[in-house]
Design goal:
Elements: H1 5-20, E1 25-32, E2 35-42, E3 45-52, E4 57-65
């Protein structure tokens, strides 16, 4: 299993960067057996992820999405 916080972030950030782009930031990490779970801040959304260290698979679920709305100005 992965041992240090830095190695956890490095192992998880690679697949996250491939999935969501270079502006992705890991917010929080927790280890549960062979799984690494956490939250990541991606452009326009926050995602919850589960990274399986043995198979190196990543599952993500969107927790929060930021939507832009356009306001029309009344004259």
């Amino acid at each position: 299993m992965l041992k240090s916080v830095d190695s956890l972030k490095e192992a998880v950030s690679g697949p996250l960067l491939q999935s969501f782009g270079s502006d992705t930031r890991v917010i929080n990490l927790s280890v549960y057996g062979t799984e690494v779970r956490g939250l990541a801040l991606c452009p326009g959304r926050v995602v919850r992820f589960v990274f399986e260290s043995k198979s190196r698979s990543l599952r993500c679920e969107e927790v929060l999405a930021v939507k832009q709305t356009r306001k029309s100005t009344a004259i």
